[in-house]
Design a protein that fits this description.
By secondary structure, the protein is α/β, with parallel strands linked by helices. It is about 25% helix and about 20% strand. It has two domains: about 170 residues, 3-Layer(aba) Sandwich (Rossmann fold), CATH 3.40.50; about 90 residues, Alpha-Beta Plaits (2-Layer Sandwich), CATH 3.30.70.260. It has a seven-stranded mixed sheet. Strands 8-9-7-10 form a four-stranded antiparallel sheet. The chain binds ribulose-5-phosphate (5RP). This is Ribose-5-phosphate isomerase.
């Protein structure tokens, strides 16, 4: 099965399980997989909340109505948010930002009752930074040099500012007019690794996902980190919260053999 067919199969399974025509607000992320999420059952009054320029164009092209994040009334919680990912580990931590939209993607994911990811088989790995090489980090242009130095001090061997499409036009600019730094690190540890005795605090060069995310976020000049980790919407709801999770409640992987694998905290399940 082609990668595109795998993406479509993942999106169909995610929509079948997590979309309802009765919803009012639905987040729609960025990337090439999310395009297939627009194949929705009939619905009438849903506001689709984009995660940036590309996402807004995709919503418009599908004939749907975009509602910008900063137009949402304060009390609104999105019923669900769908998005892609660059890599997902076995604990459902994600790397995002391959398309440079990580800041608004995190805003939208955290505003949703449930965040659901769609991806093809290449994105599924036991640990982050196994196949995807770097962590995307959105940075204020004025702060690029000190942020690069701080990332090296945290153990990133060779962080680079992501170039734009043309050499002569300088670095790529995000929807916020910021830059993206792509920072490689050694493969990240899971909480299971830490429970099994690994330190995960970077002192031996190895970081656990959330510990590294916090350390990068604490650097002055960093707007957001492309690591989506911590609690998911269901864990937050169990504690009485309405939204706030960065981690997906489920990830749907379209597989090479045509099947779809659904990953949740309970493990992986092969769907038909
Ligand atoms: O995080 C993202 C953009 O910033 C995308 O969701 C991620 O890059 C996945 O994209 P694709 O579906 O094209 O593989």
């Amino acid at each position: 099965m082609s990668v595109e067919a795998a993406k479509r199969a993942a999106a169909r399974a995610a929509v079948a399980a997590h979309f309802s025509p009765s919803y009012t607000y639905v987040g729609i992320g960025s990337g090439t997989t999310i395009i297939y999420v627009h194949d929705l059952p009939p619905h009438h009054t849903i506001h689709f909340v984009p995660t940036g320029y590309q996402s807004r164009q995709v919503i418009l092209k599908a004939g749907l109505t975009p509602t910008l994040f900063d137009h949402l009334p304060d009390a609104v919680v999105l019923d669900v948010a769908f998005d892609g990912a660059d890599e997902v580990d076995e604990e459902l931590n994600c790397i995002k930002g391959g398309g440079a939209c990580l800041f608004q993607e995190k805003l939208v994911a955290e505003r949703a009752r449930r965040f659901v990811c769609v991806a093809d088989y290449r994105k599924s790995q036991p640990r982050l930074l196994t196949s995807w090489p770097t962590i995307p980090i959105e940075v204020a242009p004025i702060a690029v040099s000190p942020v690069l130095r701080s990332l090296k001090a945290l153990g990133s061997p060779d962080p680079i500012v992501r170039p734009g499409a043309l050499d002569k036009s300088g670095p790529l600019k995000t929807d916020q007019d910021f830059f993206i730094i792509d920072a490689p690190f050694p493969t990240l540890l899971t909480t299971k690794d830490v429970s099994a005795g690994a330190k995960g605090d970077g002192s031996d060069g190895k970081w656990e996902v959330q510990a590294l995310s916090r350390a990068i976020k604490a650097i002055t000049g960093v707007l957001e980190v492309g690591l989506f980790a911590g609690s998911d919407g269901d864990e937050i709801a169990a504690k009485g919260g309405k939204a706030g999770g960065q981690k997906p409640v489920a990830v749907y992987f379209g597989m090479e053999d045509g099947s779809v694998v659904k990953r949740t905290q309970g493990g992986d399940e092969k769907l038909a």
